[in-house]
Design goal:
Elements lengths: L1 H15 L6 E8 L8 E2 L12 H4 L3 E8 L3 E7 L9 E7 L6 E7 L7 E6 L2 E9 L5 H5 L20 E8 L8 H20 L6
Antiparallel strand pairs: 1-9, 2-3, 3-8, 4-7, 4-9, 5-6, 5-8
Helix pairs in contact: 1-4
């Protein structure tokens, strides 16, 4: 009985503690940094670096990630509040030129954003650029990452830096409130049964 109780306890802790399994990736850098390996130019590689800082603000940073299972993914921009660019983030399904546009993220009017979306398992690419530097794939409603970006950005580029937190989790869905209640009832029953097994037998 004690072993059964221990197993039930471990199961409850695993299920209730599922939210703590999240993994956070920080995607950060500068659009005007020639040493930033994530950068491409809006109209294809290589990125642009000139004496005019506005030219560098046409660059876009690309980051690939993989999801092992269907899950909620949080996209949280923190760079604008710290003095960086007003960001425009595009999400693509797949990697490389054939990757297809999924959706974009930007502040409601200006600045950072915090959004969570459900995504299927697979490979994805995040493109981080200055606000309004949209991909041609988004503009046309079809197309791929290889079509490039418009190069049309606003003037709110701050110090040229960006910072995006990407939070993913491979844990399954947590129990619904009703299911969690049943689990706790079952756990309480296991506790009582264990105590009962310790009473003197007549």
């Amino acid at each position: 009985m004690l072993k059964s109780f221990a197993r039930a306890t471990v199961m409850a802790v695993m299920l209730v503690g599922g939210l703590a399994q999240a993994a956070v990736q920080t995607l950060s850098g500068r659009l005007d940094d020639a040493a930033n390996p994530a950068l491409i130019g809006s109209f294809g590689a290589p990125p642009v670096f000139t004496a005019d800082p506005l030219d560098s603000m046409e660059n876009v940073a690309l980051y690939a990630f993989n999801l092992a299972a269907n899950q909620a993914v949080r996209f949280q921009s923190l760079g604008y509040a710290a003095g960086g660019i007003d960001p425009y983030v595009s999400l693509f399904s797949g990697t490389g030129d054939p990757a297809t546009f999924v959706r974009s993220f930007a502040g409601a009017a200006v600045g950072d954003f915090d959004e969570t979306v459900m995504l299927l398992a697979g490979d994805y690419t995040v493109a981080i650029g200055l606000y309004m530097n949209m991909s041609f794939a988004e503009n046309y409603g079809s197309g791929t990452l290889g079509d490039g970006f418009t190069g049309l950005g606003g003037s709110d580029f701050g110090d040229g830096s960006y910072r995006l937190l990407l939070t993913t989790s491979d844990v399954g869905r947590l129990p619904e409130p009703g299911s969690l209640g049943l689990l706790l009832v079952a756990l309480a029953g296991a506790v009582l049964a264990h105590r009962g097994s310790r009473l003197p037998q007549h």
